[in-house]
Amino acid sequence: MSAVNNIIYQSVVYLAPVLLCVLGGIFAYKANVLNIALEGMMMAGAFVSMLTASLTGSVPAGYLAAVAACLLLGAVFALMGVTLKGNVIVIGLAINMLVPAIAGFIMKIMSVPSITLQDFSTNSIVLNIPVVKDIPVIGPVFSGHPPITYAAYLMAAIMSVLMYRTRFGIHVRVVGESEDTAVSLGLKTDLYKIAAILIGAGCCALAGVDLALERLSLYTNNMTAGRGFIAIAAIYCGRGRPLACTLYAVLFSLANALAEYFSLRVSASLLLKVVPYVVMVAVLTAASIVNRRGVRVRGAFAEN
User: Fold this and answer.
1) Each residue of 156-197: pLDDT tens digit?
2) Low-confidence residues of the chain, pLDDT below 50?
């Protein structure tokens, strides 16, 4: 595989879990809920999927358990942040710290530094696209990925339709734009906020499964490595618009792939690993400056 193909392939691999978090997080953003627990929820999906699959010997059980665990975390976040009106930043930080602590505690009880699946090969679930796989340059890059990777890209289109072409999406945006207006229209604002949070939790579960179970068949603590926070940056740079947020996620993933590629070939490898985060901060700063126009963009009257 050539250098360019290698970089693009790594971008595709890195992008899938980030994109899933982005697509889930935009609904909370549009509902005017700051969900910074994306990182913790993705980590929970990764840990629970591997733990369940390891204990039961069933990969599908790992998928289901990951979704259930993340929906439970989403319900806790919604209960404390929306129903009980708690500080969502504190709640999100608590989830981000609690998940790796619980995972580390359980692995300590099991006396293992990581969780692996002995009788499962990630190659057994990859999808080889019939026509694409035979194309010389494109085939090795875009074919041979696990199911959730392809689902992530399909969901980018689905979420855009759900956001702008359905009654639910319009109501979520109205709630985020003006809660008083939403109440006057008879909308149950808390219900829409809770639904938005749960959508994000479900997407984070899939992101965790893709990262740990489908890609590596391995869980180590803190393996998400800030992907949830990168997703939050993409959401804010794209102002919650699915297409724009997706493009920012692609940019951050490409920066990470470039850093990974060159870090293996130069002596200053540790320094290069900082590059994706520098790019993220620079882009976020630039986007904030550009968006300082006093325009409210989270709700139904945002630019498409």
Assistant:
1) 889 989 999 999 999 999 999 989 999 998 999 999 999 999
2) 297, 301
Which pair of structure tokens corresponds to residue 18? 């980030």
Contact in structure between 69 and 45 (CB atoms under 8 Å): yes
Tell me what pLDDT residue 60 has: 94
Q: Which two tokens stand for residue 24?
A: 């889930």
DSSP per position, 89-136: HHHHHHHHHHHHHHHHHHHHHHT-SSEE-TT--GGGS-B--TTGGGST
Q: End-to-end CA distance of the chain, in Å?
A: 38
Alpha carbon 40 to its chain centroid, in Å, reads: 10
Please state the domain extents for the chain.
3-116+145-290
How far apart CA 188 and CA 288 sit, in angstroms, is 31
- The C-alpha angle with vertex 121 and arms to 43 and 17, in degrees rounded to 5, equals 30
Establish how many alpha carbons lie within 13 A of residue 24's alpha carbon, considering only the half-sphere containing its beta carbon.
33
Give me 220's structure tokens.
């180590």
Read off the amino acid at residue 258: L
3-116+145-290 falls under which CATH superfamily?
Answer: ABC transporter involved in vitamin B12 uptake, BtuC (1.10.3470.10)
**How many Cβ atoms are within 10 Å of 163's Cβ, its own excluded?**
22
